[in-house]
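User: I've been going back and forth on whether these two constructs are worth ordering. Before I decide, could you fold them both?

Assistant: Sure. I'll take them in the order you sent them. The first construct and its structure tokens:
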Amino acid sequence: MDSDMTYGTRERSRPYDTTEPDALGAVISRLFAIRGYGRVQADRQLHLAWKQIVSEEVARQTRVLGLKNSVLLIGVSNGALLNELVSFQQQELLQKLKEEFPQLRIRHFKFKLRGDLS
């Protein structure tokens, strides 16, 4: 160390970060997003909403598979039920979902035959 340099006056290689620290809520929100906790909560809400708008029998034979671009994807265990849902119940169920769960912002259903749900 040079003799003419006094303690604490030498220049640092990196300047200090002068930005304010992040709010705790923002940090927790980012952590939830990274870990996928928000997705788990959203999936649970979709499953509960679906079970509330359909009959118990339909709920047993279907499963929410996901949500993409405001389209709710529903797996259906058999072709007869798939035809019933698409041809006769889709509009009524969509209206019911929009009324009871407007925060989900579902625009449409897509039903998919899934034999593994039997």
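The second construct, handled the same way:
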Amino acid sequence: MASKPNLFHSLVLFIILVAFFLLGMIYQQRKIVREEKELASVKERLKTMSMLEPDVGDSMRELQPAMAKLWYANKYKNYPLALYEVKEIKEIVETVEVLKPVVNSVDVAMVLSNMVNTPVADMETALRRHDDKKFIKSYAQTISTCNACHQMTGFGFNRIIVPTAPPVVNQDWRPATSAIRAKSKTK
């Protein structure tokens, strides 16, 4: 008789264990469903964000006016502004490096990285030393790099030159101290 209660207790214990196992399975299944919904939501957000991601053309449309502003900042000896534009150019190139574009078998990020490491770095040094000759030479090398890349990637019709007019008309290119002196003279 003593074995019947042990069998009963074992059966109850087995049923309880099975119930816990089933509850655990249900919990896990619900957790998986929630995670799948979250994953689908993240995938949808990534899809939307990838459509907003800049492409190489967007970056080039930012780079071109930065180069022109750099030219005019140096022309008017506004070295802080010129150095700021060099920083902007480097940031634009960093964006392209993240995108890792290859256009017609040309690693555009590598070309731009080399450009930043040589002629742009030389321009920055020239600006810090107020060396116009070195700046002009490095600026020309940078433009040459741009045009060579355009040729290699099939965009040779897009030729960059030294700017002949300021890229914007609502910016005073002179250093801040010159602008302040000019205003005080007109009063």
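Notes on the second construct follow. The CA atoms of residues 69 and 170 lie 12 Å apart. The two ends are 116 Å apart (CA to CA).
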